[in-house]
Amino acid sequence: MLPLFMTIVIDAYVAHTVKTNNQRPEKKALHTDSLEMTQHTTLKMTVSYTLEVANARFAGFTKLLFRWKGSIYKLLYKEFLIFCFLYSLFSVIYRCVLSEVQQELFERAARHCNKFAKLIPMSFVLGFYISTAFQRWWGQYTSFPLPDNLMMVVSGNVHGVDEHGRMMRRTLMRYANLSSVLILRSISTRVRKRFRTLEDIVEAGFMTEEELKALNHLNSDFNKYWMPLTWFTNLASRAREEGRVKDDIALRLLMDELNNYRAKCSMLFHYDWISIPLVYTQVVTIAVYSFFTFCLIGRQFVRPERADDLKVHVDLYVPVFTLLEFFFYVGWLKVGELIINPFGEDDDDFETNQLIDRNIQVSMLAVDDMHRNLPPLQKDKYWTDKGPSRSFTAARSIFMGSTYDMRVTDEDMEEVMEENWRFPVSVWPPAAQKQKKSRGTKRLCYCRRKHTSDETTCDREAEIIDMIPNKTHSPEQHEDTTQTQCVLDLEQCDEVQTTERRDVIIT
């Protein structure tokens, strides 16, 4: 099993190395011009396999186990081979080099290491660390500055189809993209290799020579990624003075979207600045590697005649379950190493260069080519119809709510109405009232007696209910008369009283 696995890993690595060497000239050409999208090279952001698992099927994830790029094999094979080599070395020394007395001492050491290595809380330490690293990884992805909202606001609120208006909109979006390039150049190794100096940014077209001089002239020891955003605000204010931004509300909308964009740039910078505490990373790393260092001795198979104390009666030579344990735990640690900083050059790291190219391209298209560019208005296909045809979904049932097909019996409704008898105003639908009356239930009405406190005609149930409906009467009635409310049988109420209180149902 082990030689076969090692053969597969080595063959895959050799094939990947050959493929990488063949693609190096194309990747080198990518860094020549940032604004020109390469048309012959397909860039992939991380390793996507969403289409392959679109449908759940038998052994659906199995096909993913044979991929090399972005796989755990690529991250782990070096440590795995070193562990196998060291384990084999200790095994050979134990079996072929040590004397009887030395073998006995080795067996005692193995028993001691195997006993106390189990005290290391591997699952707890690794689980919490990976959970924290994953939340941090996802937070960095959601903090990536995308100009989509900002470019829509600029296109819709900075008016003017003349050359000056075009220049103003394009410059606004160029400032926003320049800010993201400066911040990504500070945190991403890929972007740093692409723009080694500020002159490379000028050559790429994100910044002019005059803007570079202004950036260098500003005396500040801190990162100046915010400076193009300040230029953005100044230019937006000038557009408001020139009337290209119609009112202060539109200017406020521009400023709000710009602040959201700036907040994401700032958040990326702080993610790069404030890492997971180093002590925690050290604890996790020491725990994992020390555990498997002890396993090199503690998990050795001793000879069966000496294995009574160790409770091992089979000499397997190859520690299959120990290798699986190494694969799981060290692989778990490698996941943390991969996602703790997604702005590197690993297979699953963010393709920041592709995002930079995408952002500048769609920004210029939105505020220039697409500005005031509308297709002619026409009546749509469903102008006279109620909606699109449901030929595809005709055989499917439409979801109307989980209780849409629920059937409520009379007993269920009576129980619910009895539980809610204290409501001062009836909120039950007329159908429920009719069902209540049609069952021959005792029908009651309100009777009002002026200037009297006689309650002898009210039964005990009526006296309890009588406290609530008093609040439904108008203030004028309370001013004119002093009333005592009773609930009586319908036969005891005259026609006027019954008609007046017919809309109130009391159970």
TrEMBL record:
A GO MF term: chloride channel activity
Example of a GO cellular component annotation carried by this entry: plasma membrane
Subcellular location: Cell membrane; Membrane
Matches recorded under Pfam families: Bestrophin
Membrane-protein topology: Multi-pass membrane protein
UniProt KW keywords: Cell membrane, Chloride, Chloride channel, Ion channel, Ion transport, Membrane, Transmembrane, Transmembrane helix, Transport
KW Transport (keyword) present: yes
Catalysed reactions, as listed in the record: chloride(in) = chloride(out)
Presence of the UniProt keyword Cell division in the record: no
Transmembrane feature ranges: 80-98, 119-138, 279-302, 314-332
InterPro entries per the UniProt record, alphabetical: Bestrophin, Bestrophin-like
Family: Belongs to the anion channel-forming bestrophin (TC 1.A.46) family. Calcium-sensitive chloride channel subfamily.
The protein's role, per its UniProt record: Forms chloride channels.
Protein's name according to its UniProt entry: Bestrophin homolog
